[in-house]
Amino acid sequence: MLVLGEQFSLFPVILSGGSGARLWPLSRAALPKQLLALAGTQTLIQQTVMHAALPRAAPPLLICNDTHRFHVAEQMQEIGVAPHAIVLEPAMRNTAPAAAVAALMIAQNDSQGIVLLLPSDHVIADEAAFARAVENARSAAAQGHIVTFGIEPTKAQTGYGYIEIGEAIENGAFAVTRFTEKPGALMAETYLKSGRHLWNSGMFVFRADIILQEFDRHAPAVLEAAREALTRSRRDLDFLRLDAQAFVCAPEISFDYAIMERTKRAAVIPCKIGWSDVGSLSALWELSERDAHGNLLQGDILAVDARDCLVRSEKGLTALLGVENLAVIVTADAVLVADRNRAQDVKLIVDRLKSEGREEHLNHRRIFRPWGSFDCIDGGEHHQVKQIMVKPGRQLSLQMHRHRAEHWVVVEGIARVTRGDEIFLLNKNESTFIPRGIRHRLENPGSEPLRLIEVQSGDYLGEDDITRFDDEYGRL
Q1: Using an 8 Å Cβ cutoff, are 225 and 250 in contact?
Q2: Cα(353)–Cα(219) distance, rounded to whole angstroms?
């Protein structure tokens, strides 16, 4: 962890705990939308971190779900960012507990440090306008205000919360009259015409000491759990792991409900920053460039007499004929076809998958690991076939399976194999057999990705049939 000094006047905190259920099947619990490149070549969390790299800003403090830790760390490496810390949440408790943890950490270095609290899964198209808004918010926060960014509405949106602005304060900031959570269509129209209502962006700026006072006043149980979880936290490789027993005692509540709707210090800065929460497939369609027929087509798509459709295909040819206003998402293991006007309701599909005990809401067919990934391409009751990719210089744990044997065939790169007391290399088109009950390890000693086919056979093929003896990723 870096030691933060007085040279910084802004402390960015990036929250990355969401699951992005309304973007299924693109976004899943194990790989949510903030870790995907949905609007450009960088992922949403990478874009957010780069937006926060403002003058005199400290390295970002990231707070993420424990299961996403290796994704987040690797994506920071890809953009050359060394975070102040990557803090691991042991359970989902919404945004208030995470904000309290961040404020406690920053107050340890600078009690009056200005915190920029950002969701990791939003799009900001106008970076210059965002930087100006942050500068104004920083000035207001230094005077003790808890500032949020209000987005000037462009339509009567029922999927966003609204903020009614009051009297002017300073530097473009206004007092908040009231917050309204996701109004109906008629009320949203009224808000749009009023000129005094803004979309609630969920982005905040505040002083660390001020927000801790407000937590103590309005949400003491959140603050107590956050403080205890941080006190009892421990280092785990490059991560800071919050104490699970303490953290789960925190109420599951958002920062808006816990603080903003209760405090007398709330302020808002109206801004136009090209903002979207990418909260649905329709939002993705709206913020992306479309063709002359209003279609957003990504992948191998053939569209004939189709209009105003969003089509994203990650596997094979997808053809549309004579349809309008559809959202069609094709992944390796799932296909979604929906009326684009119902895109906000995709979560109903996710809830159904959960209730039926299915796995498609959790994982893509391709499963990512800190060493690479694997893709289950075929399987039956007593066999399973995987495509495995190991990154250069990475290795799997030294492990053993009690119920299955494995055959490995190298199709690209070089593999170093540990099998019992043997250590040997496999080149392209070479293979080996790993009997059940034998300790083994797979490594990539080369400078290019290692790709191989693994054929498993046995009476049980679950991912939990693994005993680890040594693991550089701390998963023993």
Answers
A1: yes
A2: 34
Q: Could you give the CA distance from residue 151 to residue 19 in angstroms, rounded to a whole number?
A: 23
What distances in angstroms separate CA 307 from CA 128, 296, 337, one per listed residue? 34, 9, 15
Angle (nearest 5°) at CA 338 between 337 and 344: 135
3-state SS, residue 119: strand
The answer for residues whose C-beta is within 8 angstroms of residue 165's C-beta and 6 or more apart is: 150, 174, 175, 176, 177, 196, 197, 198, 268, 270
Q: Are 391 and 372 in contact (CB under 8 A)?
A: yes
Coil, strand or helix at 194: helix
Specify the pTM. 0.90
How many helices (H) and strands (E) would you count in the chain?
A: 11, 30
What is the band of 188 on the pLDDT scale with cuts at 50, 70, 90? confident
Q: What are phi and psi of 424, to 5 degrees?
A: -150, 165
DSSP 8-class letter at 1: -
What is each CA distance from 95 to 141, 298, 468, in whole angstroms?
19, 33, 34
Q: Nearest CA to 361 among 120, 26, 66?
A: 26
Indicate if the pLDDT at residue 54 is higher than 60.
yes
Q: pLDDT confidence of 69, banded at 50, 70, 90? A: very high
Instruction: List all residues 6 or more positions away from 455 whose beta carbon is below 8 Å from its beta carbon.
Output: 383, 384, 385, 406, 407, 409
Chain CA centroid to CA 23, Å: 12
- Cα-Cα-Cα-Cα dihedral of 421, 424, 428, 431, to 10°? -30
* Confidence at 7, pLDDT banded by 50, 70, 90: low
Q: 280 CB contacts (<8 Å, ≥6 apart)?
A: 22, 23, 159, 343, 344, 346
Position 1 pLDDT exceeds 70: no
Phi and psi at 369, nearest 5°, equal: -130, 165
How confident is the model over 412-417, as a mean pLDDT?
A: 98
Cβ-based neighbour number of residue 450 at 10 Å: 26
